Amino acid sequence: MLQVEKVSKSYGTNRALNNVSLTIPKGTCYGLIGPNGSGKSTLIKIISGIIRSYEGGIKYVGGVKGTLGYVPQDISLEEKLTARTNLEFFGQIHGLRGSTLKKKAEQILKDIGLLDRAGGIVESFSGGMKRRLNIGCALMHNPELIILDEPTVGVDPQSRHYIFNIVNKLKKQGKTIIYVSHYMEEIENLCDYVAFMDKGNIVEEGEIKELLNRYANTAVYFEAENPTKLLSKGNFTFTPYKTGVIIQTNDPLKTFTELVQLSRDHQFIPEQLSLFKPRLEDVFFQLTGTDLRDQSEKGE
Ligand SMILES: Nc1ncnc2c1ncn2[C@@H]1O[C@H](COP(=O)(O)OP(=O)(O)OP(=O)(O)O)[C@@H](O)[C@H]1O
Description:
Organism: Melghirimyces algeriensis
Domain ABC transporter: 2-224
Protein name: ABC-2 type transport system ATP-binding protein
Bound molecules: adenosine-5'-triphosphate
GO molecular function: ATP binding; ATP hydrolysis activity
CATH architecture of the largest domain: 3-Layer(aba) Sandwich
InterPro entries: AAA+_ATPase, ABC_transporter-like_ATP-bd, ABC_transporter-like_CS, P-loop_NTPase
Helix content: 25-40%
CATH class of the largest domain: Alpha Beta
Structural class: alpha/beta
């Protein structure tokens, strides 16, 4: 298990991390999500030892540290060399030699889907291929903890597919993964745990299933041509959501039944009436009052 204990970091007067505490259980995929500038990269640079000056502590309990593979956002490859040579170079740095080195490079080339391009010069590769190779290089020494910083930004769908496969394979091998992204769907599909970051703070963290359950059952979704017309006849608090509205409630089944009754009484046919099942993006919205996608698009 990896424990981040009350970690703070400032760049001059800019406080990038503010008393951040997290527990990352061994063998899990842990998602870090938040808008641009929320402190994600700073946090993982501290965890991976790149930033050494900070307040608080990072503790490895029960052998998670072992070895660490950190894949930064920026590609760091030897562009004039082949894919295989790049992998072998990183393997050599970590002490691999001879047939062990060759076999490992072959295995990684297969995993990242570049076996048929093993002899290709990296500068001729697409952005997605380079990113896959960059990940492969960080895996040559078979690390126990793998940190991926925004691994799918700007990559083609085929590369994204390979990256998801790599993560799933690492999960099956029992590795601990920290997956940084601002794509909610990726975190929801790949990770077991998530921490939401905003302005240097952790606004919520926990097991994704548990979080979704906790934030579910607090609202009913209602969609109709003119929902206000009907809803104003009852005592409902509602806010626009996608093409309908969500009605906040402590008792969703009761609210659901009231809405059915109200609709019948006024011979009103809703287009959709359902218990609200939140996705991670809805949880983030409820926590921060902002839409991560909007913020990220503004920041990009
Ligand atoms: N080397 C640095 N010098 C000064 N300020 C920095 C530095 N690195 C990050 N910051 C600032 O610290 C804050 C957190 O940045 P950080 O890169 O950790 O966030 P992030 O969530 O990873 O964002 P992004 O998704 O854009 O990478 C931001 O305000 C950023 O401008």
